[in-house]
Every structure is written in C-alpha cells, then in structure tokens.
Amino acid sequence: DAKQLGPGKYRFFIADMNRRNAEQQRLEQSLRRALENGGIEVHYQPKVRLVDGHIVGLEALVRWTDAERGVVPPGHFIPLAERTGLIVQLGERVLETALRQLARLHHLGHDDLHVAVNLAALQFQQPNLVERIDGLIHASGVPAAALELEITETTMMRDIDHAIAVMTRLRERGSHVTIDDFGTGYSSLEYLKRFPIDGLKIDQSFVRDLASDANDAAIVSAIIAMARTLQLEVVAEGVETAAQWDYLRRHGCQLAQGYYFSKPLPADELELLLQQNAPGNTPVAPDASEA
Ligand code: C2E
Ligand code: MG
Ligand code: MG
Ligand code: MG
C-alpha cells in the first residue's frame, strides 16, 4: 500500500512505474518495427511418438531477435502483444510462416507431418478468425488436416459458447484442436467432455518432477488414463529426461515434446533432423529403456 511507504517511497514507486511504462512502450515500438522490417522468426519443436521416437508433428513457436536486446523470450513479449493487440498481426505471421514451411516439408516428402500453432485469447475473439485461417491454409496448399490449433483452458473459458462454435468450425474443416498447458486452468471433466477437442497437452509443470514427486506422477498418469478413455490424443510437454520419457511411455502416453528429444529448431535445422528421422531409417529416439 503506497500510503504506508511514506511520501518519499511513494515518489520512488511512481518513478519506478513510469520507468516500467516507458520500457514497455519502447518494447512495443520495437516489436512493431520487427513485424515490419524483420526480426520475427518461427522455430519448430518436434512432437514425437514415445514408442519409437518417430516425429509426427511440429509445434510452431515464435522467436524475436531485436538488434539491441538480442533474443527476447516469448514470455516477455507475448503478454505485451496481447495487451496491445499486436498479437493479432503476430499470430497471423506465425500461422502464415508455419503453413508455408510445412508446405515445403510436405514437398520434400515429409507429407504426414502436421504443424500446431498457438492461438492467443485475443486472436480467438476475432470475428473473422476462421475465414483468415481458411485463407492462409488455401494460400499454403497444405490440407486443413495438417493444421492443429493449440488453445489454453483460460482462453476457452473466456466465452464458452463462442469457443465451442469456433472450435467446431475449425474441426469441420479437418483441422485439429488441442488444449495447451492442460492442468493449469480449470481442467473440469465436464468441460473436457463438452469442448470439441482432439487432444490435450499435459503442462510441463506436472512433467518436471515426475520422477521425484509422487503427486505429480499420479496426476500425470490420471490425466493420461482419462484422456485415453475420452479418446483424446495426449502429449506430454517439457520432457527433459530419460526417466520422464520412460514413465510416460509405460503409462500409455502417446506423444511427447521436450529438450530430451529436441529443442525448438529453425526450419533448416529441422529439415536435417527430419531426414535422419525418416521412416525406414533408424529413429533418432533416445533410448529410454535404461532409465
Ligand atoms: P507453450 O505453447 O506451452 O510452448 C511450450 C514452451 O515450452 C516453449 O517455450 C518451448 O520452447 C518450451 N519447452 C519445450 N520443451 C521444453 C523442455 O524440455 N523444457 C523446458 N523447460 N521448456 C521446454 P517458448 O517458445 O518460450 O514459448 C513460451 C510460451 O509462449 C508458449 O508456451 C506459448 O504460450 C507462447 N507462445 C510461443 N509462441 C507463440 C505464438 O506463436 N503464438 C502465441 N499466441 N503464443 C506463443
Ligand atoms: Mg503450445
Ligand atoms: Mg504448453
Ligand atoms: Mg505454456
């Protein structure tokens, strides 16, 4: 409470707030410029089948490198982009880039791959979202079924009826819809049943201490069992160790993403990894059986 700080401290508090606002405004300006002049890229993290280490899909993750600041983490600029509305333009850039690069990968022979793109709450509220996605899919030439949209529970809960309507339309086109960061929002079983979804991604906070925390292990296996009962695809996020990989595989989780297999990669590095991972070649799966 500012009053209890005394008049001197209060002044510092205001000065600090002004400084932060000014920095936020500079960051916003820089992000705007990056959208116009370059500096925004998309990296791709493989989504891997746990039984055999085969790459089945990719998650597109935006990357911003600023001339002065260097790499700015999404955690710093996505919230800003959401507050300022820039996320609509940024999100569209990511969608367009991801679909174009996926078309190239399909052309190179990796034609079973899909790409998952994160949708922010504000994008989800755009009245023409589905039409814009239609346009980008059409321009890229990839089938709608090769696109997956990741939506958080929090986004879905903002306006449940609207969310259900948009998700239904996306799925009518053959695109997949998954719940991102599952377990960190409302996670009501009732909603899982009601929402038209194809899968869910177990949040990395539950995966992190899987091997050492019995509660997290129990939560993860319960989510997997429940998802399978509802015939949803399950992806574990943030898999970093052989022990996590092994636990997830033994408990029937189908897919994983995480540094243990691969970090998000720029498109050219991803192409090299995909060549090694092609069917017929020995999968580059880490051997989790020794964990
Ligand atoms: P997310 O969608 O849950 O993405 C997963 C995040 O976990 C990514 O962070 C990824 O790099 C990171 N990650 C993957 N494997 C591991 C691992 O083994 N260990 C750890 N510690 N982390 C791992 P990133 O790229 O920094 O993105 C953070 C969040 O920013 C994303 O979380 C997503 O919510 C948001 N974001 C990123 N790109 C976009 C985008 O294009 N659009 C929107 N709307 N949001 C985005
Ligand atoms: Mg995601
Ligand atoms: Mg996530
Ligand atoms: Mg997240």
From TrEMBL:
<feature type="domain" description="EAL">
    <location>
        <begin position="24"/>
        <end position="278"/>
    </location>
</feature>
<protein>
    <recommendedName>
        <fullName>cyclic-guanylate-specific phosphodiesterase</fullName>
    </recommendedName>
</protein>
